[in-house]
Design goal:
four-stranded mixed β-sheet; five-stranded antiparallel β-sheet; 1 helix; single chain; 270 residues; 31% strand
Length: 270
């Protein structure tokens, strides 16, 4: 057996199956089988950071590391971007898991055919990041360089979905973070600092679409049913204020009032 010293990687024809070649420039060792050429690279003891490149697949039943983690490690090559963890169910990560930087989001966590079973997160962990399109620019000295038109994420503009939001939704409350105020009007009292409110145009019956309470027009509230329009209230403070009881489609609505009726009028007739 011969040991050959070189300052570059050898070709397959440079040595035989019973020889070993050492590339002293790169610190790599080469040997051959009857059908293949193999390369070994060890740990550089003069540095804490080692770069080991493999130009083919790696297969092993176990992997051991004498440090607390893998450090900065990129797994996957062109056409083969799969990192498989064996039958043991736990993969512990002591840092962030980040996708490659792109102009707009491209990568998923799970898929339609391979979904995650459960997701455990902290109470304020879900943040929706906005993506906007525009032209970027940078300044070097007194010169401005205009970039190309593209989409980018805006870190300062995000929406958060929290555990408290889920609790409020399950309890039938809204999750608005903007408080509102309703001024007093006549005998109706005011309401200030309200965050449990809704702003619907239509409220439907749970199973019947013909039954709906409509508030699409400001100052107007209407009840629409399969039997017509039995209730219509409009009051904007002008001369066309009205409260109508009874359907205009059937003209046969029976109105029952149990108790006293009190009314007042300022001018006009009754």
């Amino acid at each position: 057996m011969a040991i050959k010293i070189k300052h570059k990687d050898p070709k397959s024809t440079d040595f035989g199956v019973d020889d070993i070649v050492i590339n002293v420039k790169e610190g790599t060792i080469f040997y051959k089988s009857e059908k293949g050429l193999f390369k070994l690279q060890g740990d550089n003891l003069n540095t804490d950071i080692d770069l080991i490149k493999f130009d083919a697949n790696i297969s092993a039943s176990k992997g051991f590391f004498n440090t607390s983690g893998l450090g900065e490690m990129k797994i996957g090559v062109e056409g083969i971007k799969k990192f498989t963890v064996g039958s043991f169910p736990t993969l512990e990560v002591g840092g962030h898991i980040l996708p490659t930087t792109t102009s707009s989001p491209k990568f998923d966590l799970g898929s339609v055919t391979n979904p995650w079973k459960k997701l455990y997160i902290s109470p304020t962990s879900i943040h929706f990041i906005k993506t906007r399109a525009g032209v970027g620019a940078s300044k070097i000295g007194t010169t401005f360089i205009i970039g190309r038109y593209k989409k980018e994420t805006i870190p300062e503009e995000e929406e958060t979905f929290t555990q408290e939001n889920v609790i409020n939704l399950k309890a039938g409350r809204t999750i608005s973070s903007v408080s509102r105020k309703v001024k007093a009007a006549g005998n109706i009292e005011s309401a200030d600092g309200i965050i449990n409110y809704i702003r619907p145009e239509v409220i439907y019956h749970p199973t019947e679409d013909e039954s709906a309470l409509i508030h699409k027009t400001a100052h107007r509230l209407s009840f629409r049913t399969a039997g017509g329009d039995p209730l219509d209230i409009f009051c904007d403070g002008e001369s066309n204020d009205k409260i109508r009881l009874g359907s205009t489609t059937t003209n046969a609505t029976e109105i029952k009032l149990h108790g006293s009726i009190s009314a007042s009028i300022d001018g006009g007739s009754w």
